[in-house]
Design brief:
The chain folds into 2 domains: 2-126, Glutathione S-transferase Yfyf (Class Pi), Chain A, domain 2 (Up-down Bundle), CATH 1.20.1050.140; 143-293, Rossmann fold. It is built from 14 helices and 8 strands. Strand 1 (2-7), helix 1 (17-26) and strand 2 (32-36) form a beta-alpha-beta unit. It is of the alpha/beta class and 330 residues long. The radius of gyration is 20 Å and the shape is globular. Helix content is 41%, strand content 10%.
Length: 330
Protein backbone atom coordinates (compact mmCIF):
# COMPACT_ATOMS: atom_id res chain seq x y z
CA UNK A 1 0.00 0.00 0.00
CA UNK A 2 1.27 3.46 -0.93
CA UNK A 3 0.27 6.25 1.43
CA UNK A 4 -0.77 9.72 0.30
CA UNK A 5 -2.08 12.76 2.16
CA UNK A 6 -5.57 13.60 0.94
CA UNK A 7 -7.31 16.96 0.64
CA UNK A 8 -11.02 16.24 -0.10
CA UNK A 9 -12.26 19.82 -0.46
CA UNK A 10 -15.76 21.18 0.04
CA UNK A 11 -17.43 19.75 -3.08
CA UNK A 12 -16.76 16.14 -2.12
CA UNK A 13 -18.71 16.67 1.08
CA UNK A 14 -21.90 17.66 -0.75
CA UNK A 15 -22.67 17.74 -4.48
CA UNK A 16 -19.69 15.53 -5.40
CA UNK A 17 -20.22 12.96 -2.63
CA UNK A 18 -20.37 10.24 -5.31
CA UNK A 19 -16.81 11.16 -6.30
CA UNK A 20 -15.64 10.65 -2.72
CA UNK A 21 -17.64 7.46 -2.23
CA UNK A 22 -16.32 5.88 -5.42
CA UNK A 23 -12.75 6.90 -4.61
CA UNK A 24 -12.97 5.37 -1.15
CA UNK A 25 -14.53 2.23 -2.62
CA UNK A 26 -11.68 1.50 -5.02
CA UNK A 27 -8.67 2.64 -2.99
CA UNK A 28 -7.87 -0.82 -1.60
CA UNK A 29 -8.14 -2.37 -5.06
CA UNK A 30 -5.44 -0.06 -6.38
CA UNK A 31 -3.27 -0.33 -3.26
CA UNK A 32 -3.37 3.26 -2.04
CA UNK A 33 -3.99 4.76 1.39
CA UNK A 34 -5.52 8.26 1.52
CA UNK A 35 -4.94 10.01 4.84
CA UNK A 36 -7.23 13.02 5.13
CA UNK A 37 -5.66 16.32 6.17
CA UNK A 38 -6.85 17.18 9.66
CA UNK A 39 -8.95 20.35 10.09
CA UNK A 40 -8.67 21.36 6.42
CA UNK A 41 -10.53 24.43 5.17
CA UNK A 42 -11.96 25.60 1.84
CA UNK A 43 -9.40 26.26 -0.89
CA UNK A 44 -11.15 29.49 -1.88
CA UNK A 45 -12.37 28.13 -5.23
CA UNK A 46 -11.17 30.21 -8.19
CA UNK A 47 -12.39 33.82 -8.16
CA UNK A 48 -10.98 34.73 -4.74
CA UNK A 49 -7.39 34.87 -6.01
CA UNK A 50 -8.34 37.58 -8.49
CA UNK A 51 -9.65 39.80 -5.69
CA UNK A 52 -7.42 39.24 -2.65
CA UNK A 53 -4.06 37.77 -3.63
CA UNK A 54 -2.28 37.39 -0.29
CA UNK A 55 -5.33 36.35 1.78
CA UNK A 56 -6.26 33.77 -0.85
CA UNK A 57 -2.79 32.24 -0.77
CA UNK A 58 -2.86 32.31 3.04
CA UNK A 59 -6.18 30.43 2.95
CA UNK A 60 -4.60 27.71 0.82
CA UNK A 61 -1.33 27.94 2.72
CA UNK A 62 -3.12 26.89 5.90
CA UNK A 63 -4.04 23.59 4.23
CA UNK A 64 -0.45 23.11 3.10
CA UNK A 65 0.85 23.82 6.60
CA UNK A 66 -1.59 21.37 8.16
CA UNK A 67 -0.72 18.69 5.62
CA UNK A 68 2.99 19.26 6.23
CA UNK A 69 2.43 18.47 9.91
CA UNK A 70 1.19 15.01 8.89
CA UNK A 71 4.17 14.14 6.71
CA UNK A 72 5.19 10.72 7.97
CA UNK A 73 6.35 8.54 5.12
CA UNK A 74 4.09 10.47 2.72
CA UNK A 75 4.90 13.89 1.32
CA UNK A 76 2.48 13.86 -1.61
CA UNK A 77 -0.76 15.78 -1.16
CA UNK A 78 -3.56 14.50 -3.43
CA UNK A 79 -6.69 16.40 -4.45
CA UNK A 80 -9.60 15.03 -6.50
CA UNK A 81 -11.16 18.40 -7.33
CA UNK A 82 -9.49 20.25 -10.19
CA UNK A 83 -9.97 23.68 -8.58
CA UNK A 84 -8.57 22.45 -5.26
CA UNK A 85 -5.62 20.84 -7.01
CA UNK A 86 -4.88 24.00 -8.98
CA UNK A 87 -5.09 26.28 -5.94
CA UNK A 88 -2.88 24.04 -3.82
CA UNK A 89 -0.34 23.73 -6.64
CA UNK A 90 -0.39 27.48 -7.37
CA UNK A 91 0.22 28.50 -3.76
CA UNK A 92 3.01 25.94 -3.35
CA UNK A 93 4.65 27.17 -6.58
CA UNK A 94 4.17 30.90 -5.96
CA UNK A 95 5.53 30.68 -2.42
CA UNK A 96 8.53 28.77 -3.74
CA UNK A 97 9.31 31.37 -6.39
CA UNK A 98 8.37 34.54 -4.51
CA UNK A 99 10.26 35.18 -1.25
CA UNK A 100 7.99 38.17 -0.58
CA UNK A 101 4.80 36.11 -0.88
CA UNK A 102 6.31 33.38 1.29
CA UNK A 103 6.89 35.91 4.08
CA UNK A 104 3.42 37.42 3.69
CA UNK A 105 1.67 34.05 3.80
CA UNK A 106 3.67 32.79 6.75
CA UNK A 107 3.04 36.04 8.64
CA UNK A 108 -0.68 35.34 8.22
CA UNK A 109 -0.32 31.68 9.18
CA UNK A 110 1.61 32.64 12.31
CA UNK A 111 -1.65 33.97 13.80
CA UNK A 112 -2.77 30.34 13.97
CA UNK A 113 0.58 28.98 15.06
CA UNK A 114 1.36 27.60 11.61
CA UNK A 115 4.15 27.89 9.06
CA UNK A 116 4.75 26.34 5.65
CA UNK A 117 8.08 25.79 3.98
CA UNK A 118 7.62 25.57 0.17
CA UNK A 119 8.89 22.31 -1.27
CA UNK A 120 7.78 20.23 1.72
CA UNK A 121 4.88 18.75 -0.25
CA UNK A 122 4.31 17.54 -3.78
CA UNK A 123 0.83 18.47 -5.04
CA UNK A 124 -0.85 16.02 -7.42
CA UNK A 125 -4.30 15.22 -8.80
CA UNK A 126 -5.96 11.85 -8.21
CA UNK A 127 -5.92 10.98 -11.93
CA UNK A 128 -2.18 11.58 -11.99
CA UNK A 129 -1.70 9.18 -9.06
CA UNK A 130 -3.85 6.46 -10.62
CA UNK A 131 -2.35 6.77 -14.10
CA UNK A 132 1.32 7.30 -13.24
CA UNK A 133 1.80 5.62 -9.84
CA UNK A 134 -0.74 2.80 -9.79
CA UNK A 135 -0.43 2.16 -13.52
CA UNK A 136 -2.69 0.68 -16.16
CA UNK A 137 -1.34 -2.86 -15.75
CA UNK A 138 -2.48 -3.03 -12.12
CA UNK A 139 -5.87 -1.56 -13.02
CA UNK A 140 -6.36 -4.01 -15.88
CA UNK A 141 -5.83 -6.93 -13.48
CA UNK A 142 -8.70 -5.70 -11.30
CA UNK A 143 -11.30 -5.56 -14.07
CA UNK A 144 -14.02 -8.18 -13.58
CA UNK A 145 -16.85 -6.42 -15.40
CA UNK A 146 -15.44 -4.89 -18.61
CA UNK A 147 -17.18 -1.79 -19.91
CA UNK A 148 -17.42 -3.38 -23.36
CA UNK A 149 -19.81 -1.57 -25.68
CA UNK A 150 -19.95 1.64 -23.61
CA UNK A 151 -18.96 4.68 -25.67
CA UNK A 152 -17.33 7.36 -23.52
CA UNK A 153 -16.37 10.98 -24.13
CA UNK A 154 -13.58 11.76 -21.62
CA UNK A 155 -13.84 15.32 -20.33
CA UNK A 156 -10.87 16.83 -18.47
CA UNK A 157 -11.99 20.45 -18.17
CA UNK A 158 -9.70 23.44 -18.46
CA UNK A 159 -7.70 23.36 -15.20
CA UNK A 160 -6.13 19.96 -14.72
CA UNK A 161 -3.56 19.87 -17.55
CA UNK A 162 -2.90 23.59 -18.04
CA UNK A 163 -0.32 24.27 -16.83
CA UNK A 164 1.48 20.93 -16.54
CA UNK A 165 4.89 22.01 -15.16
CA UNK A 166 5.93 18.51 -14.12
CA UNK A 167 4.87 16.93 -17.42
CA UNK A 168 2.40 14.59 -15.72
CA UNK A 169 0.36 14.28 -18.88
CA UNK A 170 3.14 14.01 -21.44
CA UNK A 171 2.89 17.63 -22.51
CA UNK A 172 -0.53 17.05 -24.10
CA UNK A 173 -2.10 20.18 -22.65
CA UNK A 174 -4.76 20.53 -25.37
CA UNK A 175 -5.52 16.86 -25.99
CA UNK A 176 -4.52 14.76 -22.96
CA UNK A 177 -5.02 11.01 -23.16
CA UNK A 178 -4.48 9.67 -19.61
CA UNK A 179 -8.18 9.26 -18.86
CA UNK A 180 -8.77 7.96 -22.39
CA UNK A 181 -6.20 5.20 -21.83
CA UNK A 182 -7.68 4.44 -18.43
CA UNK A 183 -11.18 4.02 -19.88
CA UNK A 184 -9.82 1.76 -22.63
CA UNK A 185 -8.16 -0.50 -20.04
CA UNK A 186 -11.55 -0.78 -18.34
CA UNK A 187 -12.95 -2.05 -21.64
CA UNK A 188 -14.84 1.05 -22.79
CA UNK A 189 -14.77 2.53 -26.28
CA UNK A 190 -13.39 6.08 -26.17
CA UNK A 191 -14.81 8.45 -28.78
CA UNK A 192 -12.88 11.24 -30.44
CA UNK A 193 -13.66 14.34 -28.37
CA UNK A 194 -11.65 17.46 -29.32
CA UNK A 195 -13.56 19.58 -26.78
CA UNK A 196 -12.14 17.57 -23.88
CA UNK A 197 -10.24 20.54 -22.36
CA UNK A 198 -12.76 23.30 -23.12
CA UNK A 199 -14.27 25.20 -20.19
CA UNK A 200 -17.51 23.97 -18.59
CA UNK A 201 -18.43 27.60 -17.66
CA UNK A 202 -17.23 27.45 -14.05
CA UNK A 203 -19.40 29.66 -11.85
CA UNK A 204 -21.01 31.45 -14.80
CA UNK A 205 -24.25 29.56 -14.11
CA UNK A 206 -24.61 31.87 -11.11
CA UNK A 207 -23.40 35.04 -12.82
CA UNK A 208 -24.44 35.03 -16.48
CA UNK A 209 -26.51 31.89 -17.15
CA UNK A 210 -26.81 32.52 -20.90
CA UNK A 211 -23.03 32.38 -21.27
CA UNK A 212 -22.89 29.21 -19.17
CA UNK A 213 -25.60 27.52 -21.24
CA UNK A 214 -23.66 28.25 -24.43
CA UNK A 215 -20.48 26.63 -23.08
CA UNK A 216 -22.39 23.63 -21.68
CA UNK A 217 -24.26 23.28 -24.98
CA UNK A 218 -21.03 23.10 -26.97
CA UNK A 219 -19.72 20.25 -24.83
CA UNK A 220 -22.90 18.18 -24.61
CA UNK A 221 -23.70 18.66 -28.30
CA UNK A 222 -20.18 17.56 -29.28
CA UNK A 223 -20.38 14.42 -27.14
CA UNK A 224 -23.76 13.64 -28.71
CA UNK A 225 -22.45 14.23 -32.24
CA UNK A 226 -19.68 11.70 -31.62
CA UNK A 227 -22.31 9.20 -30.42
CA UNK A 228 -21.05 8.98 -26.85
CA UNK A 229 -23.25 7.13 -24.37
CA UNK A 230 -21.94 9.32 -21.56
CA UNK A 231 -19.30 11.82 -20.58
CA UNK A 232 -16.77 10.97 -17.87
CA UNK A 233 -15.03 13.66 -15.87
CA UNK A 234 -12.62 14.25 -12.98
CA UNK A 235 -13.85 17.60 -11.69
CA UNK A 236 -16.83 18.32 -9.37
CA UNK A 237 -17.53 21.70 -10.98
CA UNK A 238 -17.54 20.19 -14.46
CA UNK A 239 -19.84 17.36 -13.39
CA UNK A 240 -22.18 19.79 -11.65
CA UNK A 241 -22.52 22.11 -14.63
CA UNK A 242 -22.92 19.42 -17.27
CA UNK A 243 -25.31 17.33 -15.20
CA UNK A 244 -27.38 19.75 -13.09
CA UNK A 245 -27.70 22.50 -15.69
CA UNK A 246 -28.16 20.30 -18.74
CA UNK A 247 -31.93 20.64 -18.39
CA UNK A 248 -31.73 24.44 -18.22
CA UNK A 249 -29.45 24.40 -21.25
CA UNK A 250 -31.95 22.26 -23.15
CA UNK A 251 -34.77 24.67 -22.35
CA UNK A 252 -32.65 27.64 -23.37
CA UNK A 253 -31.73 26.16 -26.76
CA UNK A 254 -34.95 24.16 -27.22
CA UNK A 255 -32.93 20.95 -27.49
CA UNK A 256 -33.45 17.51 -25.97
CA UNK A 257 -29.98 16.20 -25.13
CA UNK A 258 -29.72 13.39 -22.59
CA UNK A 259 -26.02 12.98 -21.82
CA UNK A 260 -25.18 11.32 -18.48
CA UNK A 261 -22.03 12.59 -16.73
CA UNK A 262 -20.19 10.34 -14.27
CA UNK A 263 -16.82 10.45 -12.51
CA UNK A 264 -13.95 8.32 -13.76
CA UNK A 265 -13.72 6.66 -10.33
CA UNK A 266 -17.34 5.51 -10.66
CA UNK A 267 -16.51 3.78 -13.95
CA UNK A 268 -13.48 2.17 -12.33
CA UNK A 269 -15.69 0.90 -9.51
CA UNK A 270 -18.18 -0.61 -11.95
CA UNK A 271 -15.39 -2.34 -13.85
CA UNK A 272 -14.01 -3.65 -10.55
CA UNK A 273 -17.39 -5.24 -9.80
CA UNK A 274 -18.88 -2.82 -7.26
CA UNK A 275 -22.62 -2.20 -7.11
CA UNK A 276 -23.84 1.17 -8.44
CA UNK A 277 -25.16 2.20 -5.02
CA UNK A 278 -21.71 1.85 -3.46
CA UNK A 279 -20.37 4.28 -6.06
CA UNK A 280 -23.09 6.92 -5.72
CA UNK A 281 -24.56 6.08 -9.13
CA UNK A 282 -28.26 6.84 -9.47
CA UNK A 283 -28.16 10.26 -7.80
CA UNK A 284 -27.21 12.22 -10.89
CA UNK A 285 -29.73 14.51 -12.61
CA UNK A 286 -29.30 13.04 -16.09
CA UNK A 287 -30.19 9.37 -15.68
CA UNK A 288 -27.37 6.98 -16.61
CA UNK A 289 -29.52 3.82 -16.49
CA UNK A 290 -29.91 3.31 -20.24
CA UNK A 291 -26.21 3.82 -20.86
CA UNK A 292 -25.13 1.46 -18.08
CA UNK A 293 -27.65 -1.18 -19.21
CA UNK A 294 -25.34 -1.68 -22.21
CA UNK A 295 -22.80 -3.27 -19.88
CA UNK A 296 -25.39 -5.21 -17.88
CA UNK A 297 -25.52 -2.83 -14.91
CA UNK A 298 -28.94 -2.37 -13.31
CA UNK A 299 -29.24 0.91 -11.42
CA UNK A 300 -32.11 0.95 -8.89
CA UNK A 301 -34.44 3.93 -8.62
CA UNK A 302 -33.22 6.64 -6.26
CA UNK A 303 -35.16 7.04 -3.01
CA UNK A 304 -35.53 10.78 -3.65
CA UNK A 305 -35.20 12.71 -6.90
CA UNK A 306 -32.10 14.85 -7.19
CA UNK A 307 -32.67 18.47 -6.23
CA UNK A 308 -31.10 21.34 -8.10
CA UNK A 309 -28.84 23.60 -6.01
CA UNK A 310 -30.54 26.84 -5.01
CA UNK A 311 -29.08 30.20 -5.99
CA UNK A 312 -30.08 31.50 -2.57
CA UNK A 313 -28.86 29.92 0.65
CA UNK A 314 -31.86 28.95 2.76
CA UNK A 315 -30.09 28.41 6.04
CA UNK A 316 -27.09 29.83 7.80
CA UNK A 317 -24.66 27.03 7.20
CA UNK A 318 -21.16 27.82 6.03
CA UNK A 319 -18.23 25.91 4.65
CA UNK A 320 -15.93 23.84 6.91
CA UNK A 321 -14.25 26.31 9.25
CA UNK A 322 -10.77 26.05 10.76
CA UNK A 323 -10.25 25.48 14.46
CA UNK A 324 -8.43 28.40 16.02
CA UNK A 325 -5.78 27.76 18.67
CA UNK A 326 -6.98 28.21 22.23
CA UNK A 327 -6.08 31.56 23.72
CA UNK A 328 -3.65 31.37 26.59
CA UNK A 329 -4.78 32.84 29.89
CA UNK A 330 -2.92 36.05 30.62
Amino acid sequence: MTKYLFYPGCSLQRNAKAYLDSTMAIRDDINIVLEEVNDWNCCGATEYKSVYRVPSHALVGRNLALAAQQVDGADTLVASCSACYLNLAKTESHMRHSPKLKVQVNDALAAGGLNYEPGTLEIRHLLDIIFNDVGLDVIKEKVVRPLTGLRIAPYYGCMIVRPDPDNRYGGHTEYPTAMDDLMKVLGAEVVYFPQKTHCCSGHMTQITPEVAYELIHRLVRAADQYNADMMVTLCPMCQLNLDVYQGDMNRHFKTDFHMPVLYFTQLMGLAFGYDPEELGIGKEFVDARDALAKIGVDVPEADEPAKKPSRRRKKQEGLPMPKMPEEKNS
